[in-house]
Amino acid sequence: MADEDDRAEIIVGAIALVVSCVALLLTTLQVLQTYFASATGYARCGPKVMGDWAKSTRRILRPYELRFEVQFETPVIFLAHPNNNRGPVPDEPIWYIDGTPKSRNETRSLLPDEQKQNDDKLSRKKRIQDNERASWVVLLAALQQMEHDSEQWQSRFYTARPGNTKPQKFAERTLAVAVQKKVKSWDTMPAAMTKPYATTTMCHLIELASVLGLHWREFSRCENRYRAEGNGFILTGSVVNELGLVFTFQKTARTLFEEERVIPNEAVKQFCFGVVPTIFGEPEDETEDVFRYPFDVPQSLAAIKLGSSREVADTLTVMGCNTNTVDYLLKDHQKMGHLFPVAFEILGMLSRTLHGHGSGFRMLPNPTTYRWDKKSFSLWKLLEAFEDRLEQDDNITNTDQIQKIKRSLEHISKARGPELPLRTELTVPLMDTLHDALDSTDKYLTGGPREFFVLGILRSHFHVLLRHLNDAKERENFDALNSLGLEDKQGRLMEIYFDTIRKEVVKKTPQRMPTLYRPQTGNVVMPVPHTADSTTGPAGFQGGHASADSDSITSLVRKQSGFTEKNREDQLNDIWCSFVFRMLCWLLLHDFHKEDIQLPKSELLGSRLPVYIV
Asked: Keywords, A to Z (predicted)?
């Protein structure tokens, strides 16, 4: 009996031990589950959401708080020079997106081939958008694809008709997209956010949109509504409580990064905001106050604003145009173009050349509020008409500068080739020839003692042009352009320019150079040349406004013009012809998307307002 009782006790004890162990195990599992459940957000930082960025997600035990903290890495995206070694995140490496396998591994992005496979699937059958993945993962893949595809196209384009200069290597460019990693904690995530987000700034986001070929359809800071579309992408933005401006990037259709790719030049960053660096500014000006945030009314022609009618009017004021000329931009129902808007004429005459030697890229963000539509005219026919007038006009003396322009025209014609169907096709040699012509013209227009008269011709040209476009008694010539066929428009426009505009511009340009003021900024402020219809005051006034106080004037400089009465008209003709020739060459060498127009936002140039991409 005793043995049976002992066996019973052993069995009962064993059962109790098993039950206790099971209970202990369950309790342990429950405690562990509680600990792991405290790792809030871990499931939202997985590969389905973050792609390869999920590999950096980890739980950090906080024993004193009896919980796990979730930490993850997300990108900080910005645009900079490829040789820049300073980023917004201290002590973190900077990865530049160049489309290579190394760059794709560093930025943990999709391969371009994988992206193309997704495009093929999208074109073959309808698919529901995958909303699980963070949109900044798609953005990084798109940027890698842009660099990969455009580099391949550039190689094919150059090989087809090689030039004397090879395209710039990636490190030789002045603009690239850069990425840094930033460690974040889910503890600091706002309650309204359910996915990790990438970080950038307002100015860099606007620049990214332009680089990828998106055009802003809505940009309302009053209502906090933002939407950009283009090249198969949509970018939308709104305000999220406790965080700020949040944007979503989506791929909706097939994308193309070839000849439509934006020129990788740092000046593109200004074009995105309607600000244009000009031939009268030096590259080092971009590091000075002229481009610092916020970009206010320009004080010189080193940079101009074209993003709205008001800004174009401000630019004309800086040129020294009188009140009547400026009012044409500010009044309703005024005519602001002939074959194309006058804003593009300002752009072509003044903008710095952004094209790179040996490159096939020529696309730029449109800095004007006008649409660039080339269907109703031909720039090549305009250039041919300009060449004909230069040869036939008896009032144009064959000076050294006119001979240089004629030689440039000969080189351009030779680069175009003899075959008529191909004479509108751009090649590397042709684009480099246009670039060389611009460089030669810029050297003349920005050289030495003629600077005052260059600006005088510029001011008079737009004064006369806008008056002839809008004055009821003088606009007949331009109104008649609308009734002409495509073959005749270009020749007629050049006829008006040479026979009417040029003569009046040369006549109204000042006879002598007044004293110039040199403010502390170092930029020479040009007084308005005195003419019969200039609304200027005494010396020291510009555009009807008083000059700077005497405290801000460091010196008075009297420059010799180098002109005599004998050659005055010839030199003024040289300047005017150089401006028109430069405008045509610049517009041929650069291009804008027909759907791209500028929405006013120049005050955001350089803005470091944080924005987030989910």
From this structure: Membrane, Transmembrane, Transmembrane helix
In this structure, is residue 11 part of a structural domain? Answer: no
**β-strands 58-62, 303-305 pairing:** unpaired
Determine the Cα angle at 470 with ends 388 and 481, to 5°: 40
Please tell me whether residues 232 and 324 are part of one structural domain.
no
| pTM, to two decimals | 0.86
242 and 280 housed in the same domain? no
Over the stretch 418-470, which tens digit does the pLDDT of each residue have? Answer: 765 555 689 999 999 999 999 999 999 998 667 778 989 999 999 999 999 98
* Residue 227 confidence (pLDDT) above 90: yes
Q: Which residue segment(s) compose the domain that 457 sits in?
A: 275-536+556-597
Please report how many Cα atoms fall inside a 13 Å half-sphere around the Cα of residue 376, on the Cβ side. 13
Q: Are residues 254 and 281 in the same domain?
A: no
CA distance 293 to 297: 12
Q: Please state the φ and ψ torsions of residue 193, each to the nearest 5 degrees.
A: -95, 130
Q: Which residues contact 261 (CB under 8 A, 6 or more apart)?
A: 146, 150, 153, 213, 361, 363
What's the structural domain count of the chain? 2
Residue 324 tokens read as 């009547």
* HSE, side-chain direction, 13 A CA sphere, residue 513: 21
